[in-house]
Specification:
Elements (H helix, E strand, L loop, with lengths): L5 E3 L5 H11 L13 H18 L6 E4 L4 E6 L8 H14 L2 H17 L6 E8 L8 H15 L4 E5 L5 H6 L3 E7 L5 E7 L8
Parallel strand pairs: 4-5
Antiparallel strand pairs: 1-2, 2-3, 3-4, 5-7, 6-7
Helix pairs in contact: 1-2, 2-3
Length: 203
C-alpha cells in the first residue's frame, strides 16, 4: 500500500507518530477516560500507542505526512493488530504503568473492537490523528483520501471505529457508512463504519 504526498513510516518515525496520537486522543470521548489519571494520561497513553505502532510496523501500512502533521495506521486484509504474545506483553506493560483496573478497561475495549470487526477482507484503519499544532487544516482527511484512493485501486473495502461522534460526518464524506455500534463498559457508544469496495483492482 503506497501513497502520494505521505510516506510509509519507519522505526525512526515512531516518536513523531506517538506524539501525534497522544495529543489527538488525549480528550477523545473513549480513549481519554480510558486513562483516568489525567496527570499521567499522556505518559500512560503514549506507552500504549508506542507499543501498538511498533508492533504493526510489520506491515508497510503506517503513513506519515511529509511534514509530520498527520498519521494513519492501517492493518491490511488478513493482518492482525497484535499476536497472542504481543497481547500478553501489552497486558504486562499496562499493568506496570497503569494498574489492574485501567489495564482491564483498556483490554476490554480492545476485545470488544476485535469481536465487532467484520470478517470480510478489508483494510482496517486502526488509528488516524493530526498533531495538535496542525489541527483544523485538513491534513488528516487529505491523508485519509489519499490512502483510500490506494484501497480503491486494489478493489478493497475499508473499516474503522469512530470513537468520537464529531468525526462521523467526516468519515461519511469519504464513503464510510455506519455499520454497527459498540458500547464500552463506560457507556460510551462507538460507531463502526464500513466502506464498500469501490474500485476495480489495477492490473
Amino acid at each position: 500500500m503506497t501513497t502520494g504526498t505521505a510516506r510509509v513510516a519507519g522505526p525512526a518515525d515512531v516518536d513523531r507518530i506517538v506524539e501525534i496520537l497522544t495529543g489527538a486522543f488525549f480528550h477523545d470521548p473513549l480513549w481519554g477516560p480510558a486513562f483516568p489519571d489525567v496527570e499521567r494520561r499522556a505518559e500512560q497513553a503514549a506507552g500504549l500507542w508506542r507499543f501498538y505502532v511498533t508492533c504493526v510496523q510489520r506491515y508497510p501500512c503506517t503513513f506519515l505526512t511529509t511534514g509530520g502533521e498527520a498519521t494513519a495506521v492501517w492493518i491490511p486484509p488478513g493482518g492482525v493488530e497484535l499476536t497472542h504474545d504481543e497481547e500478553a506483553d501489552l497486558e504486562r506493560l499496562l499493568l506496570a504503568t497503569t494498574g489492574r483496573e485501567t489495564t482491564d478497561g483498556i483490554l476490554e475495549i480492545m476485545a470488544r473492537f476485535d469481536a465487532a470487526r467484520p470478517r470480510e477482507p478489508h483494510y482496517y484503519l486502526g488509528l488516524i490523528g493530526t498533531h495538535d499544532a496542525h489541527r483544523g487544516r485538513g491534513h488528516g482527511m487529505r491523508l485519509l483520501a489519499e490512502n483510500l484512493a490506494v484501497v480503491d485501486a486494489q478493489g478493497a473495502a475499508a473499516y474503522l471505529e469512530s470513537s468520537n461522534p464529531a468525526n462521523d460526518a467526516r468519515y461519511a464524506r469519504h464513503g464510510f457508512l455506519p455499520h454497527a455500534t459498540i458500547t464500552a463498559a463506560s457507556g460510551h457508544v462507538i460507531t463502526t463504519m464500513w466502506r464498500p469496495i469501490r474500485g476495480i483492482p489495477s492490473r
